[in-house]
C-alpha cells in the first residue's frame, strides 16, 4: 500500500508542478493557454534523452528539461504578445495540435508514437533515488518562487496586465517583457515536471502530451481556484486521487468498472463547480451567476 | 457540546469508509489475485469488454475443474489505454492487491507497465497488442498473442496462390504499422508479390476519401489494412464508399464487433491464430460452446487470447502447487521456461525464451458478419 501511495503522491507532485505553473500564467497574468502539455512533453523528452544518452541524474534532467521547455516557450510567448483572450486560446490550441504531431513524427528524438522505452531509474550524485523527494522539492521551490513573484513588483505588474492590459501599458509597464517572462517561468516549470514524469514512468510517448492532458491540468487549476497559491495543488490532489479512490470500491462489476468510475467522477466535478464555482480555495464571492 | 458533532462525524466517516472495507481471508485460503489492466472507459472500452469476457470464462472453468487449491479473485483496473493511468493501476494491482498475474493490452500501456512489472517481478501478460516491439520488454512481460510480423508473413503464400500479387498497404503511422511496412517491403517481393503502393495514415485520421483515391490510382489486386481500434471500420467504409472494390486483407486485430457487423466488411480476409471451434480439441470446443451460451455469439480472437492468458496462469500455478513451491513471478517464469508447450484454446501453444507465444496461423474471411476459416 505504501508503494502505491508513494506512486500516487509522485504523480500528484508532478501534476501539482504543472498546475501551479499553469496557474501562474492563467491566474496571475490572464494568459489562457491550452498548450501546457506541449512544454510538459518537451521537458519529458529532454529529460528522457539526458537519462538515456548521458546520465540519469534527476537534477541534470530537470535543468535540461526546464531550459528546453523555457527556451522554446518563446513559440507561445510571441503570439501571446500579439493576441488576447479567446484569440490566444485559439493560438495555443494550434500550437498544441502542431506539437502533438511533431512529437509523433520526429522519431529520432521522441521515438514517434512508440515513444522512448527503458529510461533508467533516476540518480542524484550517483546514488539511485526515487522521484518523489525530487518532485516534492521542485514543487516546494516553484510554490516559493510563485509566492515571492506574486507579492513583488513583477506579480503586481502581471495582475495589472490581467485586469486591464491597456491601463497597465499606459502606466508605463513593459507588458511584452512581463508576459514573456511569465510564460518562460511557467513553461520551464512544466519542463521540470516533464523530466520527472519521464524518469518516474521509465517510458514516454505522445499520448501523455495531448490536448486531453492540457485540459486536465487546466481543470486542476479551475477546480482548485485560479490565482491562488494552493488551489492548483488541491485541484491536482482531487483530480488524481478521486479516480484512484474510486478504484477501491469493491462492489463495481469488472466489466462496468470504468463506466461507473467515470460517472461518479463526472458527477463529483459537476457538483463541485455548481457549489464552488470559484474553485475550492478561490474567493466564494466570485464565479456565481448574479442574475 | 461537541459530543453530537463528533458522533455525526464518526458516523459519516464510517459510512464513507464502508465500501472500502474488504473481507479478510485466512492465510491458507488467500486467493490468487489476477489483475486486469484494460481500457474500461473511453474510446477503447470495446476492447476492455472483449478482454474481460475471456478472463471471466477462464476463471469459471478453472473453478469448475478445481484446477487450483486456492481460490482465484479478479481485480480490474481501468487503464483507459493510456500509459499514466496504466502505471497507477499497475502499482495498485502489485502493491495493494498483491496480484500474482496481471493481464494487459495496448502497446503504450504494455510499454509503460513493463518496467513496473520488471521491478516487482510480477508476470504481466499481453493478449491484445501485436507490435513486434513488445518482444523482450522484460523477462516478466509475456505475450499470449502471436506478434504481428508472424501473422502477416503467413498470408503471403495465400495471396500469391489467389493471384493477388499486387498489394497496396494502408498502415497506421506507429511502431505496429512501421513493422508491417518493413515486412511487406522486405518479404512480400521475395514471396513473388509486389507492393503496389504504401499509404501512411495518422492514428487520429477518420476520413479516408483521399487515401481511397490514391489506392485506386495504384491499381492493386488487394489492399492490406494495418490499423487498429475504431479506425478500422472507418477505413473499410471509406475505401468501399469511394469505389475501392478489390479484396481487403488484414490481421487478427480486425476481428472486432464493429467490423464484423459492417456490411462493407463482407469478404474481408484476415489472419488469426488457428482455432477450430467446432472440430478442435475438447478444451477449444468447451470454450466455444460456453462462450456462445453466455454471450449468444462466437468468441472473438481477443476473448480467446485472454482466456488463454488466464488459463496459462492456472496451468503454471497448478504445476507449482503440485511441487509445493510458492507461486510468484520467478517460479512462474521458471515453470514456463521448463514446460514451454501448453494445451490452450486453439491447440498446442509454445513459448520462446522471451515469453512470446508462437501458434499456428489460419486465414479467415468475413461471411455474413461472421469469421469463417478458409485456409491454414
From TrEMBL, chain B:
**UniProt GO BP:** amino acid transport
Q: What keywords are annotated for this sequence in UniProt?
A: Amino-acid transport, Signal, Transport
Q: Where is the Leucine-binding protein domain?
A: 32-369
Q: Which residues form the signal peptide?
A: 1-26
Q: Which family does it belong to?
A: Belongs to the leucine-binding protein family.
Q: What is this protein called?
A: ABC-type branched-subunit amino acid transport system substrate-binding protein
Please give the organism. Answer: Neoroseomonas alkaliterrae
Amino acid at each position: 500500500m505504501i508503494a502505491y501511495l508513494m506512486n500516487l503522491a509522485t504523480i500528484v507532485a508532478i501534476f501539482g508542478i504543472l498546475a501551479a505553473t499553469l496557474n501562474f500564467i492563467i491566474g496571475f497574468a490572464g494568459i489562457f493557454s491550452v498548450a501546457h502539455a506541449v512544454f510538459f512533453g518537451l521537458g519529458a523528452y529532454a529529460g528522457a534523452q539526458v537519462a538515456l544518452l548521458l546520465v540519469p541524474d534527476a537534477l541534470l534532467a530537470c535543468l535540461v528539461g526546464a531550459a528546453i521547455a523555457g527556451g522554446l516557450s518563446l513559440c507561445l510567448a510571441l503570439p501571446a504578445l500579439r493576441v488576447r483572450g479567446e484569440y490566444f486560446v485559439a493560438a495555443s490550441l494550434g500550437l498544441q495540435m502542431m506539437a502533438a504531431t511533431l512529437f509523433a513524427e520526429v522519431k529520432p528524438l521522441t521515438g514517434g508514437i512508440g515513444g522512448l522505452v527503458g529510461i533508467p531509474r533516476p540518480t542524484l550524485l550517483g546514488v539511485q533515488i526515487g522521484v518523489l523527494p525530487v518532485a516534492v522539492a521542485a514543487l516546494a521551490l516553484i510554490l516559493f518562487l510563485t509566492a515571492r513573484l506574486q507579492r513583488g513588483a513583477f506579480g503586481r505588474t502581471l495582475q495589472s496586465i490581467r485586469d486591464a492590459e491597456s491601463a497597465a501599458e499606459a502606466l508605463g509597464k513593459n507588458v511584452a517583457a512581463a508576459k514573456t517572462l511569465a510564460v518562460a517561468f511557467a513553461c520551464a516549470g512544466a519542463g521540470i515536471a516533464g523530466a520527472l514524469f519521464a524518469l518516474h514512468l521509465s517510458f514516454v510517448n505522445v499520448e501523455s502530451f495531448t490536448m486531453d492532458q492540457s485540459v486536465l491540468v487546466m481543470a486542476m487549476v479551475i477546480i482548485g481556484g485560479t490565482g491562488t497559491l494552493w488551489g492548483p495543488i488541491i485541484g491536482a490532489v482531487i483530480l488524481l486521487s478521486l479516480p484512484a479512490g474510486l478504484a477501491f470500491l469493491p462492489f463495481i462489476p469488472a466489466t462496468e468498472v470504468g463506466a461507473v468510475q467515470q460517472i461518479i467522477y463526472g458527477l463529483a466535478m459537476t457538483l463541485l463547480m455548481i457549489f464552488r464555482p470559484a474553485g475550492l480555495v478561490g474567493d466564494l464571492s466570485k464565479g456565481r451567476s448574479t442574475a | 457540546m461537541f459530543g453530537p458533532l463528533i458522533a455525526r462525524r464518526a458516523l459519516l466517516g464510517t459510512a464513507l469508509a464502508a465500501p472500502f472495507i474488504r473481507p479478510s481471508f485466512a492465510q491458507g485460503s488467500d486467493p490468487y489475485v489476477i489483475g486486469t489492466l484494460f481500457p474500461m472507459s473511453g474510446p477503447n472500452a470495446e476492447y476492455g469488454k472483449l478482454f474481460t469476457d475471456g478472463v471471466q470464462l477462464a476463471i469459471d472453468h478453472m473453478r469448475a475443474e478445481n484446477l487450483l487449491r486456492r481460490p482465484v479473485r479478479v481485480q480490474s483496473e481501468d487503464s483507459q489505454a493510456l500509459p499514466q493511468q496504466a502505471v497507477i493501476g499497475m502499482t495498485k494491482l502489485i502493491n495493494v492487491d498483491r496480484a500474482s498475474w496481471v493481464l494487459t493490452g495496448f502497446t503504450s500501456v504494455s510499454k509503460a507497465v513493463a518496467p513496473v512489472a520488471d521491478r516487482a517481478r510480477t508476470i504481466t501478460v499481453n493478449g491484445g497488442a501485436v507490435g513486434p516491439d513488445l518482444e523482450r520488454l522484460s523477462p516478466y512481460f509475456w505475450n499470449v498473442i502471436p506478434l504481428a510480423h508472424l501473422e502477416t508473413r503467413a498470408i503471403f503464400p495465400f495471396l500469391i496462390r489467389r493471384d493477388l500479387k499486387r498489394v497496396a498497404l494502408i498502415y497506421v503511422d506507429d511502431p505496429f504499422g512501421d513493422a508491417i511496412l518493413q515486412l511487406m517491403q522486405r518479404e512480400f517481393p521475395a514471396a513473388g508479390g509486389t507492393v503496389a503502393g504504401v499509404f501512411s495514415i495518422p492514428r487520429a485520421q477518420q476520413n479516408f476519401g483521399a487515401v481511397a483515391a490514391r489506392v485506386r490510382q495504384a491499381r492493386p489486386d488487394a489492399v492490406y489494412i494495418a490499423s487498429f481500434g475504431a479506425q478500422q471500420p472507418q477505413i473499410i467504409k471509406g475505401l468501399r464508399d469511394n469505389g475501392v472494390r478489390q479484396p481487403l486483407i488484414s490481421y487478427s486485430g480486425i476481428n472486432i464487433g464493429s467490423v464484423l457487423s459492417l456490411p462493407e466488411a463482407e469478404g474481408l480476409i484476415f489472419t488469426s491464430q488457428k482455432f477450430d471451434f467446432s472440430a478442435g480439441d475438447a478444451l477449444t470446443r468447451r470454450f466455444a460452446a460456453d462462450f456462445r451460451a453466455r454471450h449468444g455469439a462466437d468468441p472473438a480472437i481477443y476473448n480467446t487470447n485472454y482466456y488463454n492468458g488466464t488459463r496459462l496462469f492456472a496451468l503454471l500455478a497448478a504445476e507449482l502447487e503440485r511441487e509445493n513451491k510458492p507461486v510468484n513471478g520467478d517460479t512462474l517464469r521458471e515453470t514456463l521456461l521448463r514446460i514451454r508447450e501448453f494445451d490452450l484454446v486453439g491447440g498446442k501453444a509454445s513459448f520462446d525464451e522471451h515469453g512470446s507465444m508462437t501458434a499456428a496461423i489460419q486465414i479467415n474471411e468475413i461471411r455474413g458478419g461472421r469469421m469463417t476459416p478458409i485456409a491454414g
